[in-house]
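Expect chain and fold; see below:
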Amino acid sequence: MTTTNVSPLSIVLLMKGAKTMTTSLLRTSKEIADIYQRHKDMVYRICFAYMKNNADTEDAVQDTFCNLIKADKPFESPEHEKAWLIRTAANVCKNALRHWWRKRENLDEHENLRSLDNYEIDETFQVVMGLPNKYKTVVYLYYYEGCDSTEIAQILQKPQSTIRYYLLQARKALKQHLEPLY
């Protein structure tokens, strides 16, 4: 009887639907771990902005990094790496929100699921999270992640003028919601 050594990485990829585990991986385990350590908080915050509860956020973060493991093209720069993770995290969350189960079960009603363990949520952040997705994403990337409108345009694959318009509209909505508070 022969035994084969199966790595945890192989198991994850096979569970996620990867067809083969030959030599298609571009990154070593150490490189993936380094990328994870550099960007895990940012990816978590982006996913939480969409999912609004810890359980779904953790699933989305895991799916994002599984996509990183399966990705077969190298990053050109650290900015490209960060932009790829932001875009992938947003797409993973959008796909999860479109899933048939979300339409059947409304998890937003369960207030006890809403929390960010190590992150402080102030009134401004809550108002930002209440904006429509197109505005919320742009505001989050601009103010919380420090991206400029050119970077956001590249990440979201939209014209820079559209990003500036979204920021303008989001600021108007934020002013309207926050003016009574301050």
